[in-house]
Specification:
The chain has three domains: about 10-210 and about 370-445, Ribonuclease Z/Hydroxyacylglutathione hydrolase-like (Metallo-beta-lactamase, Chain A), CATH 3.60.15.10; about 215-360, Metallo-hydrolase/oxidoreductase (Rossmann fold); about 470-559, Ubiquitin-like (UB roll), CATH 3.10.20.580. It is built from 16 helices and 28 strands. It has an eight-stranded mixed β-sheet with strand order 8-7-6-3-2-1-22-23. A seven-stranded mixed β-sheet has the order 9-10-11-12-13-20-21. The longest helix is centred in the C-terminal third of the chain and has 20 residues, at about 525-545. It is globular, with a radius of gyration of 29 Å. The relative contact order is 0.12. The structure holds zinc ion (ZN) (2 copies). One zinc ion binds next to loops.
Length: about 550
């Protein structure tokens, strides 16, 4: 082996997902420094919140890999959750490489591409779990795990420097409600052959014990549905086919017809049928059927578990749904957990349901109507024992979660651990795990139809406007500096009247007038001077009356 060959290694470079739960995008690369053959594992989104006004979807900034797309071999998809595939429809066509994934993930990606009219721009290549796909010196295998939607997979990379396993999202569930089973044998076999690095889901690493099985949740749901005297509505994550199947089977046993409300849920049910996870024996009725069914003969499956204001459940809680109404004595089950940040919205729905007299069941240790799809500490240890990696790299978590997994792995005797951060290239094999380089990373916002920078794009200004509002002032002057018309002013997002009962706009116009008069003709010949003076005067006047300074725009017209 020459000296040069010794610097060739397999490394990971997250552009999203290390330090946040969401927008997962991990680049893996075989080569030297930043000159590598790259693989993109997942291409997900995060959702906007109050800090990103007007933005629903946040994507990873992929400029680094877009600049190197000739070196990118493929986009490899682990599973179909939005935090793993949500950015594919917006980014894949810019990269020009095929997207590899199992059937269910590709079905959902294709639906999204069709909505955007991009289905001909992106090549989708269906893979079979258990088979090796070669890309030059590196081969990849999809390994089935258990999670909270159909076809979750880990990925194994076989490189000249050894094997690296990327777990994707997983839990170890010995009794899932839909196939596949967790691949105990394959992980053990890879462990026997030797694994250089395990890059592992950290979402629940701070929680001791094991997450309950889907079967336990199915049993609890069955019990509740069998005993319910009136209508039952169940809301869950729309992609959770295992849960949907458990609910449908319970409904059938209880002699209830299943009515589906919500576009996303119907779309997933259709995809689940195509991959054979729901068979045509199960009947799903449209929401129009709801009104015709007896109170104890219907079960409603609906979207809205996160309190989304446009979802079916929120409209039902407002008693404003076109086809569906619930009343005193009916039951709503939240077969879900509340994603941090959505608490207010969810409790608002629960309160409105309570006003209608509807009973609500949410997940508690006593009423197990939901379980997480991510591994707790016992499950992580079990995977460590199967795989026996030389080094462990936590991913898919905030730093709190990744740090917790690092500690767990160290206590479990794994020889080496390292923390990843977005934008850092970390060597995985051969060891030691070390940061080799740092590159630009960040966020993009989907703003309307456009992708904008997350850091200094338009949302920064919008955030500011949401605190202070905006004032526009227009003045007409001639070229000698004479005033040729009354000052015009519009204020948006400011209080209408002052504490003395004056109109705020009048107060601000007076301030602008006085400033303009006071400038003198000579200084009024310069646009910049006029703009600066009026802006200052209006901001001062607003501050004196209101205690806050708005954004002020001054438009000068020369007539
Ligand atoms: Zn995830
Ligand atoms: Zn997931």
């Amino acid at each position: 082996m020459t000296d040069l060959d010794q610097d060739v290694d397999f490394a990971v470079l997250p552009l999203g997902g290390a330090g946040e739960i969401g927008m997962n995008l991990y680049l893996y690369g075989w080569g030297r420094g930043l000159n590598r053959k790259w693989f993109m594992v997942d291409c997900g989104v995060m959702f906007g919140d109050a800090s990103t006004p007007g933005i629903d979807i946040i994507l990873p900034d992929i400029e680094f890999i877009e600049d190197r797309r000739k070196d990118l071999a493929a986009i490899l998809i682990t599973h179909a959750h939005e935090d793993h595939i949500g950015a594919v429809p917006y980014l894949a066509h810019r990269l020009g490489v095929p997207v590899y994934g199992t059937k269910f993930a590709l079905l959902l990606i294709r639906q999204k591409l069709e909505e955007l009219g991009l289905e001909d721009e992106v090549r989708l290549k269906e893979v079979r779990a258990g088979k090796k796909y070669s890309f030059g010196e590196v081969a990849v295998e999809w390994i089935p795990v258990t999670h909270s939607l159909p076809e979750p997979n880990a990925l194994a990379f076989f490189t000249p420097a050894g094997t690296v396993i990327h777990t994707g999202d997983f839990k170890i569930d010995r009794t899932p409600t839909i196939p596949p089973e967790f691949s105990f044998d394959r992980f053990r076999q890879l462990g026997d052959e030797g694994v250089e690095a395990l890059v592992c889901d950290s979402t629940n690493a701070i929680r001791p014990g094991r997450s309950p099985s889907e079967r336990e949740v199915a049993a609890e749901l069955r019990k509740i549905i069998m005993e319910a005297p009136q209508r039952v509505a169940v809301t869950t994550f729309s992609s959770h086919v295992g849960r949907i199947r458990a609910v449908v089977e319970a409904a059938e046993e209880a002699g209830r017809e299943v009515v589906v409300a919500g576009f996303a849920m119907r779309r997933v049910i259709e995809a689940a049928r195509e991959v054979g996870l729901l068979d045509t024996r199960h009947r799903f009725l449209d929401e129009e059927a709801f009104g015709y069914l007896e109170r104890d003969k219907v079960l409603l499956l609906c979207s809205g578990s996160q309190g989304e204001p446009n979802a079916a459940l929120s409209r039902i809680a407002d008693d404003a749904h076109r086809n569906i109404a619930l009343e005193e004595g009916d039951l709503v089950i939240f077969s879900s957990f509340t994603i941090p940040g959505n608490e207010k919205a969810v409790f608002s729905v629960v309160n409105r349901l309570a006003m209608l007299g509807v009973e609500v069941i949410m997940n508690t240790p006593e009423r197990l109507v939901h379980t997480s799809g991510h591994p707790r500490q016992e499950e992580l240890r079990e995977l460590y024992d199967l795989v026996r990696p030389k080094r462990l790299i936590p991913m898919h978590g905030e730093f709190l979660h990744m740090r917790a997994q690092q500690k767990l792995a160290e206590e479990h005797g794994i020889g080496e651990t390292a923390l990843m951060a977005d934008g850092e290239l970390l060597r995985l094999a051969p060891g030691p795990a070390e940061v080799l380089a740092e590159v630009e990373s960040g966020q993009w916002h989907l703003d309307g139809r456009l992708l904008t920078p997350g850091d200094d794009g338009p949302t920064k200004q919008r955030r500011k406007l949401s605190y202070v509002g905006v004032v526009a002032v227009s003045v007409a002057l001639d070229f000698k500096g004479n005033i040729r018309g009354a000052v015009q002013l519009v204020a948006d997002g400011l209080p209408e009247v002052t504490e003395h009962g004056e109109l705020m706009e009048d107060v601000l116009i007076d301030a602008a007038d006085a400033a303009l008069e006071g400038m003198g003709r000579a200084r009024r010949r310069n646009d910049e001077t006029v703009i600066d003076t009026l802006r200052l005067a209006v901001r001062r006047a607003a501050r004196a009356e209101w205690g806050k300074k708005p954004v002020v725009h001054v438009l000068v017209q020369r007539v």
